[in-house]
Design a protein that fits this description.
The protein is 26% helix and 34% strand. The protein is of the alpha+beta class and 186 residues long. A hairpin with a 2-residue loop joins strand 6 and strand 7.
């Protein structure tokens, strides 16, 4: 979804409480029906993932976002462990979010400011019905602006029930993990 460079948008939230162990998955609630064209291929679901979170300031089609994720899916930004310039600021931690928690936090951020994220490179490993995708992204506040951040989404996908599902997205911005390696750039 972080994709998703929303770690930048979640920065303030990540520093408001100490790290906690991942919460157990909530009882699975069925995802809204997906658009066939969003989930019929790996390319389609990745395109839909980026498209559904991108746009000018205001709302998003959050049911479209929900429809891409498997029940119990997680979105996990890697963020600084402490505010910049303080002890521990060179270390990182993860913030584990359910789809609903992600929507709540991202929704508040994109309501105030445009957010456009696009994939610039991809590496895929697939076995049977599972796939690991390293998707390099650029994020902007407006189309045509230079990116304010780049990073990598590590996206786990599952093909089941005649469609693709996002199971997990773990992401880190370039600023937190050093420069992006050449093998993850176009």
């Amino acid at each position: 979804m972080r994709g998703l460079a929303l770690a930048v948008l979640l920065f303030g939230c990540a520093h408001s409480s100490p790290p906690a162990p991942p919460a157990p998955a909530p009882a699975a609630t069925p995802a809204p029906p997906a658009r066939t064209e969003d989930v019929e291929s790996m390319d389609a679901i990745l395109r839909a993932l980026y498209d559904s979170i991108s746009g000018p300031a205001g709302g998003r089609d959050w049911n479209r976002v929900r429809s891409l994720f498997a029940p119990g899916a997680r979105l996990i930004p890697v963020v600084p462990a402490a505010p910049p310039g303080t002890a521990g600021s060179s270390m990182t931690k993860t913030v584990v979010l359910s789809v609903e928690e992600f929507i709540e936090k991202a929704g508040a951020a994109v309501a105030k400011q445009g957010f456009y994220e696009r994939e610039i490179a991809r590496k895929v490993e697939q076995y049977g019905d599972i796939a690991q995708v390293f998707s390099t992204y650029e994020s902007r506040h407006a189309e045509g602006e230079p990116p304010f951040v780049r990073g990598i989404n590590s996206i786990q996908l599952h093909h089941g029930g005649g469609r693709w599902w996002v199971v997990t997205i773990l992401w880190q911005d370039e600023t937190g993990g050093g420069p992006l390696p050449k093998e993850f750039l176009p």
